[in-house]
Amino acid sequence: MNTYKDLDIYKISFSLFLKTHPFSLKLPNYELYELGSQLRRSSNSVNTNIVEGYGRRTYKNDFIKFLVYSEASNLETSSHLEKIQALYPHLLSECEGLIQEYNLLGGKIHSFTEYVRTSWRS
């Protein structure tokens, strides 16, 4: 592994961010700066915390801390999508797909965090 870009969790989170951002713009105008903004920021945070953690990989505990932040932002993103799903039924199927992808990503982040916790050599 030469860079954070080699991490599957980075690749998946970046791809999901690129799907989630334009999806958030489908919300009504009055939600673009409320729930839409929260969704965009949490989705971005999933990815950004992976990058920042990797940048601190020399310090194992810092790496783990940022991976935990990434997993928490992933859960936050799913929660925002569930709210959108409940409030805007016309976006239901697209939300369901994103929620499933974020759930899979959350499992991968968790597994990678456990790998770092038990096997990472600083």
UniProtKB/TrEMBL annotation:
Pfam families: 23S_rRNA_IVP. InterPro entries: 23S_rRNA-intervening_sequence, 23S_rRNA_IVS_sf. This is Four helix bundle protein.
